[in-house]
Amino acid sequence: MSKPVKIIFLFLVFDLVVLGAYFGIKSAISSKSGKTPMDAYEWKTMDEYYQPADYVEQFIKDDAAAKGIFPVEIRNYGKSGDVFKRFVGKNFARSPVSSLDLAFSGLDDWTLVDVRYKNEKQQEIARTILYVNVKNQWRVGDSGTLQK
After folding, report:
1. Could you give the CA distance from residue 20 to residue 17 in angstroms, rounded to a whole number?
2. Peptide bond into 4 cis (omega under 30)
3. What pTM value is reported for the model?
4. In what order do the strands lie in the sheet with 137-146?
């Protein structure tokens, strides 16, 4: 092989080694952490004496009281775009936050909440609910789950 070909060959081999090391280290770091955006939020147990933090939590508490399903566990994500990207429901599937404005004309606010409780047959029910505030009125926008 001539000298220029050897230099080009060594340069390509060096690049492959550097790229392999970079992606190997990046993969090792991301697999070690293994954390999802949802892990930053804690579960709260809601009972008759729970003080709701906002209107949506008050709605969930009133609904649970009417159905007699206390205790209810909730994890309120608020307006977390990272968590919303993992939401899969009937109307949304891993969508960006900007899709909410397209789906709900007059959207003022929104929040995403995980809810867990046991029904009268002691079966655990778990779902993620998207609440939207459209024209100053809160309602359920979608229901589904969060993908890990």
Report:
1. 5
2. no
3. 0.73
4. 44-46, 72-78, 107-118, 124-134, 137-146, 87-89
3-state secondary structure of 38: helix
Residue 91: Cβ within 10 Å count: 14
Domains of the chain, residue spans = 1-34, 37-146
Q: Measure CA of the first residue to CA of the last residue in the chain; give whole Å.
A: 52
Read off the tokens for 67: 């159905």
Distance CA 63, CA 82 (A): 28
Give the amino acid at 26: K
- Residues 23-81 pLDDT 10s: 777 766 655 555 777 888 999 999 999 999 999 999 999 999 998 889 999 999 999 99
